[in-house]
Amino acid sequence: SATSATFAGWAVILASEAFGDFARSHVAAQALYKLMDCYKEDECGARPAIEGSARLEKVNFCYPSRPEVKVARNLNLIAQNGQTIALVGASGCGKSTVVQLLERFYCPNTGVIKIDDHNIENINRAHLRYSIGLVGQEPILFKGTIIENVSLGVEGVSIEDVRRACRQANAANFIEAFPEGYDTDVGEKGSNLSGGQKQRIAIARALIRNPKFLLLDEATSALDTESEKKMIVRNNCPCYIDFNEYVPQICGTENISRKITSIFYIIQSALNEVSRDRTTIAIAHRLSTIRDADRIYYIENGSVIEYGTHEELIEAGGKYAALVKAQTLSKHE
């Protein structure tokens, strides 16, 4: 009948509108099932008491996706227990590769990495990673409370443990200013927080397990972004109307820059404090942040070109000294 045909037609129309959702759901489900089918990393491997020294000896490495590009070439690094080591060099020189090798995301093609006196490949992965705190360029937060994000992946954490980690990360003041405090929802990907706030939450997360190693991969670089400026305006400027539209001349570009600088120093102060009594390996784009490092390694094309303290490298007048000079000139232009 005509009525049946009409209903059938509407059913087809409604179903066709959902085809896109079905297709996306199918792809998402495939990815989820693939993840669920992944084997759990083996439980074998030694679980030594980790003191906090690391050594890379003649390490060579290529990423599996780019076997023709050698990103580490006879790389030698030493980080003694409790020292702060800085890695500097041009983008793509191999600095972040060191972090990934220490986390055992990859294994070197040749050469040896030792944690204390143990070959890193003989150490249980989970045990190794529990002793490492990582703070990256872009903190990854998940929708949920601050407590949930700080304690992520660590069992048996108390609220006092979370508060302690947040105090160490200079995050307690802004958290406790929120109406819901530590129960504040950070939003999808931390959308309810500024870049500086997200970074301090990430630092607290790295500290919650009291790691022996702290890896800092350009941990303050996100503070230079335009989104950070907009978030500062949104939170501080009475002239602010729309998140995507603000007039720096009205809001005061100088005031915004001063605010970002203030946040930067708050975060850097936290990083300096938490680096004490643990081995820290820092990748820095702001050379002023690593002046006091026990040893600075300048890396080029996957190899260490020069190393020493800030004063030693400046006196040597090599590539590190040239980089410091260039950054100083850029700052005053």
From TrEMBL:
InterPro entries, alphabetized: AAA+_ATPase, ABC1_TM_sf, ABC_transporter-like_ATP-bd, ABC_transporter-like_CS, P-loop_NTPase, Type_1_exporter
Gene Ontology MF, one:
ATPase-coupled transmembrane transporter activity
Note the Pfam families from the entry: ABC_tran
Q: For this UniProt entry, what is the primary localization, expressed as one broad class?
A: membrane
Per UniProt, what is the membrane topology? Multi-pass membrane protein
Annotated keywords: ATP-binding, Membrane, Nucleotide-binding, Transmembrane, Transmembrane helix, Transport
What CDD domains is this protein classified in? ABC_MTABC3_MDL1_MDL2
**Subcellular location, in the record's words?**
Membrane
Q: Does the keyword Lipid biosynthesis apply?
A: no
* Cellular component annotations (GO), alphabetically ordered: cytoplasm; membrane
Is the Transmembrane helix keyword given for this protein?
yes
Every copy of the ABC transporter domain together lies at: 54-326
Name of the featured protein = ABC transporter, ATP-binding protein
